[in-house]
Amino acid sequence: MNESVLRRALLVIAIFGLVIGVGVWRTGLGPVEADTIWMAATLPVVAALAISILRDFWIGRFGVDAIALVSMSAALLLGQPLPAIVVAIMYAGGTVLEDFARGRAEHNLKALTDRSPRVAHRKSTQGTVTIAVEDVTVGDLLLVRAGELLPVDGILLDVSASLDESAVTGEPLPERRSAGDMLRSGTVNAGEAFSMRASALSEQSTYAAIVRMVAAAQTVKAPFIRMAD
Length: 229
Prior knowledge:
- Helices cover 54% and strands 16% of the residues.
- By secondary structure, it is α+β, with helices and mostly antiparallel strands.
- The strands form two sheets. Strands 2-1-3-9-4-7 form a six-stranded antiparallel beta sheet, with no helix packed on it. Strands 6-5-8 form a three-stranded antiparallel beta sheet, with no helix packed on it.
């Protein structure tokens, strides 16, 4: 089963267990029955968390999830299933929210990657040929048509150019560049076609660096988070 689906299922079980247990307790059917329901709804969360922690230990990672496991286990051992299921809901709810945030981040990263330049128009004495952006070499003379992404970083050769740099700098208005100015990949030609000379390979250009930074930020914990764990 997909982990995110499992986490949502655990949250639903815990919430329903709490609600049903409270209903049983309020109707006067007996606290023992309510405690049994709360305990039964907590145990799946405890089991899933224990497996997750053991898996993290195996790869040398330790986090604050262990506190939730100790809390729920101790509450159950001390005959306090209500606090245990409350902690279970807090833990399961937190993991579901993390999955949601991770999904949003992965969607944004995919959109960023999908927007990456794919092709470039290289000019030569034989004319202009369309090539993959990975085939661009430093010093190539490139043509950037209206509305196209700049494939790599380079130097503007024409008198002027209008660029939409919002995807790179956040600036909403087009920027005017003059001959000799440095141009960054990932920006959009908001004016007429112009020529530029490549000054970097595609993997060394600005937009590729942005994609790598975003991907790294999603997979690596900050030092403060590691210290807190």
